[in-house]
Amino acid sequence: MPISSVHPKYKAQENDWETMRDSLAGDYAIRAKIQKYLPPPPGMNTIGTHDINDILGMSRKGIQSRYSHYATFAEWPEIVQMTINAIQGLIHEKPPTVVLPTELQYLEDTATPAGDNLNELWETMTRETFSTGRIALLDEIFDDLTYICPYVAESVVNWHVKPKLLGGGPTMVILRETHTTPKPEDDFEHEEVTAYRELRLAQQVNESGEPIGEPVYRVRIWEAPENKDPRIVVNEDTDESGWIVPQFFGQAWAEIPITINNTEDRTWKYGAIPLISAARRAISIFRKTADYFRALYNKGDPQAILFGVSKSEVPSTIGGSMIWAFEDADGSAMYLDIDGQGIPLQRQAIEDQYARFAQETGRLIDSSDTEGVKSGEALRREAAGSQVTVKSIVINAGASMQAHLRRMARLMGKSQSVIDAIEFTPNLDFSEPLMSGEEFMKYVLAKNAGGPLSWQTIHEIARRHKITDKSFEDEEAEIEAEGPSDAEIQRELDQEVALEAAKSAGGDNTQNGNEDTQNGGNAAPNSGKPGKKVPPKAKPAEGK
User: Can you tell me the distance from the alpha carbon of 279 to that of 287, in angstroms, rounded to the nearest whole number?
Assistant: First the structure.
């Protein structure tokens, strides 16, 4: 089998990966493959003996022009790109917590051969995981330092893995890479070169070809220029078969230094693609908008029909500024219009797809709900459903990154205590939804009404919902520095007036004490209910 052969499970994923890449690339990529994402309706695809267009004598060019016109009505919704950008914003609002030994701290500034730092590599890792459900991390040695090379899902084309009873690690991995290079005969022109990186865990052989020692990690590169078969690259750094045995300070590695991160685990089995349902909804909306806007166009542009007119008299133009005059008295013209009854149903179908997208992805999208917005609690429950999924994916990706960093330390010969001290903890502080000022004031009013809440608890609620990022002590210090607010001054004035009113009411009750005693001690002036006293009304507070 050639080096370009792919794993049987790889083929089953290719279509979904292509769909995700095109959906994320947007309208331009979708229209480059327009007939895949917008199949021609019947009568617009091919000419056959039973095709109505063939019967009418329409040429293939005419059919294609009809389809091209139809395709202009389709609108690509950028919901997939918006969703993944929103998720990335949540995850990377705060950087991960990283603990590395001194010998690996250079990764915080330069983690990849391309120069990306560890945070940038982490962003790539999460974006690829949400885009295709997989990313691979491979260690490579440059100038006595080990760096991490990320490989997207499409690049890991083939592999062999040992049974779990024998360790379960890979014994062969094929990585496909593509790059452009100037053509040898004309450096103004470029050609695309496909390279295959063959990773093997195999024993070395002696001059007689007999295996010696324990299996070690080795690498071989194949290159395939355009329209040519792959060939092994042999140079001064390889042996005669093209193999290189990477060594870290003279020590070969006894494993292939690659980590596979899937949506839910680190195995070689493919997992789910988190946003594939969003891409499918976007394609469905794209197709439905073509029919919907074409129907609107046809409704607003009815077909002119002529009767009793010879071919020579048929007008070549139409419009409000044109006059049609027929010499024959039997000549007439009219418009053939559509009733448009299906247009509202087409619009509803598009809205249903947006609603289904919101349900499947957990995104809170306005679906033109005529009955108003959802309650805050309903939105929290809906958001929590998606955050559980996002959290689990991020936790798994963080565990993969931590495992890979610990593998690097182990391959560098570090002690187990140093390895165990390496930590990579991603930001998971994105589960609390934002809070409106109205919602926050409900807590304040509840506290003032005697609710069992401390001001420190209310401040913690405000901090979690991103109303403030200050500590309780800092917030108190700033409030004290600001001085009393107008509301506090008015509250104190109101309390003074209420106190004076209470004193006045107490004096009146003393004067009427004997009268109350004669009435049984329970009489209440101006009240028909015994036992209830009605205090006099307090004077209204005057303004400052």
Answer: 13
Q: How far apart are CA 410 and CA 420, in angstroms?
A: 10
CA distance 62 to 12: 37
Q: How far is CA 249 from CA 3, 161, 355, in A?
A: 31, 28, 58
CB atoms within 10 A of CB 191: 14
Query: For residue 131, is pLDDT > 80?
Result: yes
- Give a three-class secondary structure readout of 29-87: HHHHCHHHHCCCCCCCCCCCCCCHHHHCCCCHHHHHHHHHHHHCCCCCCCHHHHHHHHH
Distance CA 293, CA 71 (A): 10
| Other CB atoms within 10 Å distance of the CB of residue 422 | 21
The reported pLDDT for the residue numbered 539 is 43
How far apart (Å, rounded) are the C-alpha atoms in residues 139 and 137? Answer: 7
Task: Report the half-sphere exposure of 132 (CA within 13 A, side-chain side).
Answer: 24
The more confident residue out of 244 and 167 is 244
User: How far is Cα 535 from Cα 232, in angstroms, rounded to an integer?
Assistant: 101
Query: What would you report as the CA-atom Rg of the chain, rounded to the nearest whole angstrom?
Result: 37
> What average pLDDT score do residues 68-92 get?
91
Q: How far apart are CA 41 and CA 230, in angstroms?
A: 41
